[in-house]
Each structure stands twice: as C-alpha cells, then as structure tokens.
C-alpha cells in the first residue's frame, strides 16, 4: 500500500473508532476494561499526530526528490490524503456503499424496483449484499437515507465490516 493510502487508512480507522464509540465503550469507559475515556482519547490523538508526522515526512522526501518547495508539496500530499480518506469514509460509513456492491447489468429487460425504469445492459448498478437485488445507484442512495431494508424483498441491509475494533 502506498504511503498516502496508509495515512488515510489510519485516519479512517481512528475516525471510525471515535464514531463507533458506543460499540465498544461508553463515555465513562465502563464497558472498556482496558482504559478510561481520557486515556482512550489520548490514543486517538496520538494516532492523528502520527498521521501528521507521516504526511510531513512524505512531503519532505517528495520535495527533495522533485526539487520543489516544501510548502506546496505538503499541500499536494495533504490533498491526496484527503481524497483517499473521503473515499474510504464513503465506503465505510455510507450504507449505500457498505451495503451494496458495484455491478454491471448483464441482460436487458430488468427493471429498477425503486423507480420502475428499465436498467439497460452494460449499465452500472448497485446490488444489495443481503439479497443481490439490483437498483440504480442513484435510486438506492436516495432509498438508504430513509430505510435500511431492500425495497423489493425487505431483507435487512447487511453492511460490510471494514474495520475491527
Ligand atoms: Zn431506479
Ligand atoms: Zn432484496
């Protein structure tokens, strides 16, 4: 994995731990036998500092290699990390991504169960992980803002687990 991806993945994991706090700990730390709340938070802060150090190191070596100034190289690296982080977060947090797979429609005659419009052969679509029913990407993205089951068979949406705690 290249360094930009490594940094973004570490940041995403840390953000994921923070946003899923309730899954493995309460705010007073009573469900987390390892540490107290403030100690845990220190861990997350330390992780962000490590990511910053990795970012500046990468910018320094890239500036040296390409003979450019450090400031603009740093901005470039930060932007690249930001783009990677956004991609990872979209896939891990948004159920429309984590609960569906990207697929191509293989035959004509299929209809999107949400908008009832045709789905054409070769068209990009999203298939639910729970039942493999396929819908237009745009339709399922709108759907999961309100509901977490399949519009056709009502199965509860499964979402991929990206990070273990
Ligand atoms: Zn549709
Ligand atoms: Zn279904």
TrEMBL record:
GO MF annotation, one: zinc ion binding
Keyword terms: Metal-binding, Zinc, Zinc-finger
One Pfam family hit: zf-RING_2
Keyword RNA-binding tagged: no
Position of the signal peptide: none
Repressor found in the keyword field: no
Domain RING-type: 112-154
PROSITE patterns for this protein: ZF_RING_2
GO biological process, one term: protein ubiquitination
Protein name: E3 ubiquitin-protein ligase SIRP1-like
Name of the coding gene: LOC111286302
